[in-house]
Design goal:
By secondary structure, this protein is an alpha/beta fold. It is 42% helix and 19% strand. It is built from 10 helices and 10 strands. The protein has an 8-stranded parallel beta barrel with strand order 1-2-3-4-5-6-7-10. It has a two-stranded antiparallel ribbon with strand order 8-9. β3, α4 and β4 form a beta-alpha-beta unit. α4 runs parallel beside α5 and α5 packs parallel to α6. The chain starts with a strand and ends with a helix.
Length: 259
């Protein structure tokens, strides 16, 4: 496994990743698709200059399915362009999701999602890029079972971007999910979790939180995962100098479990 971090596409971001002694940068495009797509060539130059590989590119939160139940062709077009960018940047994984349309049944929503992901997989496969669904709940219902059983069970070339925090905050069992689905993990986030009085309190640096990282990473190894562990600084409390020290701590901490 390799260790990386989420950051953005400017030179100071690549320099920051390099200064931290990391070799992988994850790009979460989200609603910044225009800026990202206009700077793909520059991003590739910076990747080569700093010898920082792009671990994945992803887009969270968008509506892939319209209220009518039709596929969102405009969104599909954007995602095709982002997949093309993955190819140019040698990023092996594109991360996406699918919204739930309340006007339709669960069965119909599963059918819509399968049709949408089939198009992405068909487009990405010749480019040797894996399509992975994020397990974040942000405008996405394809985050756990039964959706994984139905959708990933049917689409054998659909993978998972896994983040333990989303499972924990939803009251799930992340070790159980890892045991069952690790062979479909294509990308993994490292983000701390802190639950106090039964509620989400903060996302502190990994290693200063409640996640059993040694067991989780051990299960990744036993399950054959050999991708990137991507640090996601996400806390509103750990900012500035404290945030910098927290990231440095997480890097030292996670490296202890990497063989």
């Amino acid at each position: 496994m390799k260790l990386g971090i989420i950051n953005w596409i400017y030179e100071e971001h690549f320099k920051d990743v390099s200064d931290k002694g990391l070799e992988y940068l994850e790009i979460c495009v989200n609603d910044r698709d225009k800026e990202f797509l206009e700077n793909v060539e520059k991003t590739k130059e910076l990747s080569e200059k700093y010898n920082i590989k792009i671990s994945s590119v992803g887009r969270w939160g968008s509506d892939r399915i319209l209220k009518t139940g039709e596929l969102n062709d405009e969104e599909l077009s954007i995602e095709y362009k982002l997949i093309d960018a993955c190819q140019k940047l040698d990023a092996p994984v594109y991360v996406t999701g699918c919204n739930y349309v309340e006007e339709f049944s669960y069965y119909e929503n599963v059918t819509f999602a399968i049709k949408y992901f089939e198009k992405l997989i068909e487009y990405a496969k010749p480019k040797n890029i894996k399509i992975a669904t994020y397990n974040c709940r942000w405008n996405n219902f394809v985050h756990s079972d039964p959706a994984w059983n139905l959708i990933h069970g049917y689409l054998k070339d659909l993978y998972i971007k896994y983040d333990t925090s989303h499972c924990i905050y939803d009251g799930g069992d992340y070790l159980s999910e890892t045991k069952k689905w690790c062979n479909r993990f294509a990308h993994v986030h490292i983000k701390g979790v802190l639950v106090v009085d039964g509620q989400r309190y903060d996302d502190p640096p990994a290693g200063l939180d409640q996640t059993d990282w040694s067991s989780f990473i051990g299960m990744l190894y036993s399950g054959g995962y050999d991708g990137v562990l991507s640090i996601e600084p996400h806390s509103p409390l750990w900012q500035g100098e404290l945030g910098r020290k927290g990231i440095e701590y997480t890097i030292r901490y996670i490296k202890k479990f990497m063989l």
